[in-house]
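Before a colleague's protein record goes any further, I have to sign it off. My question to you is simply how this chain folds and whether the tokens agree. I do not need a full report, just your reasoning and any doubts. This is what I was given:
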Amino acid sequence: MAILSDLYSAKWLLFGVLIVVYGSLRYKAYRRLSQFKGPFGTGWSELWHIRALVSFRSHEWYRDATDKYGNVIRVGPNDLITNSPDLLCHMSAVRSPYTRAAWYNRATRVEPGKDHIFSLIDEDTHTKRRQKMAAGYSGKENITLEPTIDFHVQELIDLIRSKYLSSSDPNRPSKPMDLAMKIQYFTLDVISHIGFGQAFGDLKADEDVHEYISASEEGMKIMMYICALGLTPIFQWPPLARLLGPSEKDKSGHGKMMKTSRRLINERYNAQKSGKEKGSDMMASFLQRGMAKEDIFTEAWLQILAGSDTTATAIRCLMLYIVSHPRVYRTLQAEIDNAVKNGLVQNEQIISEADASTLPYLQAVIREGLRIHPAITDVVPKVVPKGGDTLVVDGVSTFFPEGTNIGYDVLGLARRKDLFGEDVDIFRPERWIFNALNDKDKQRLEIMRRTTEMIFGYGKYQCLGKPIAWMEIHKVIFELLRHFDWSIAKPATPWQSNNYIGIFLQKELWMVVTERGV
């Protein structure tokens, strides 16, 4: 009792000591990165960064901050953000000692304690998993890849033609179509068909069969708050995760899709193991390389979450920017018509990836669309290795202390005037076209290409699904403009678009579609 009495008498002294200790630790943290400028208070508190992440516009917050404070800035006591391509490439290089930050990547786990290629933190495990998966994402082993995409592109065209065409007669009422929703149906069908060997059937049904889209916004919002508030370790605790997360017993949403995904994987797994089926698609490749059934399930589910939303975003953004820029629209459609006229693609065929890649203006439009509105803006922070690191960033030798998180300002990189010109906020595909390439222009074009493609990651962290996304984008843009004419139904509010820690969820991109008389 005497000890308790003494402690009570000294309560203010103890409180003062705690304040001094806390203040000293915070000051030490502040001093550690004090050389880096940033918004007010970021050296002492996570508040600015939390507000950015939960704003649904984090990509704009980061871009505005780097425009104001520099190419490497402070956004938290231990967090930096950069739009420097040299630093970003350095951190993600194949032999780089930088690693992923658990607070961000671990938040994307589908099931508690089970990692996919994006949530893996251990570098050795990550490298081995990529090696097993890489062939399945390529067209070398997955010989059905392009025909599968062609099939669903044709389904999309047939759906539009059968249900959503408006008359070219201005005296007849139009019937707008939500292109955002139809594109999501397309990407979900493609990624499920590629990943499981069987499409979910959204295009055929013309509806969100498993109610994935309606569940995504709620799920992504929850993940955004968990990540922003640093609650990942708590919500990844298995008992709590199983209680609050999606369940395969659910009758709709993510849980229902997980159940369907597991059933399809089990069927393919059992058929492959019994020798009854020897496929040549993605899952067959995974099985042949010894991936466990649970790992295949986790990776397939990641494909749905990441692959469908990001590719759908790219296609939506491209269509919105093309249709809202008449000069670009006319030029691109003329190139497409000329390609058809010259026999590059037959009437009953979907254009091949190889042929689409030969069309210079189509290539320029796609690259400019990915630049002006990146399909994904995940900050994907990397951790500075032991002992710290020194690198020349934009001509200045800069030291990064050990353990610092350095994130990616995607939009800021895509809008750097020294890389893309003074008019970086304007959609101008011609910036990618040079009439006569001299050595200087070739070098500049290569830097522009490499910089834009960094939205798919770089080096050891480059997105395995990049070739699939490129193929989908090329084919859909070509075929939609080949067969139909488009106009924006609601120019004042063309769509609803929110950013959830890097993933865009978009809806109500209402378009009026008419058949082309070509």
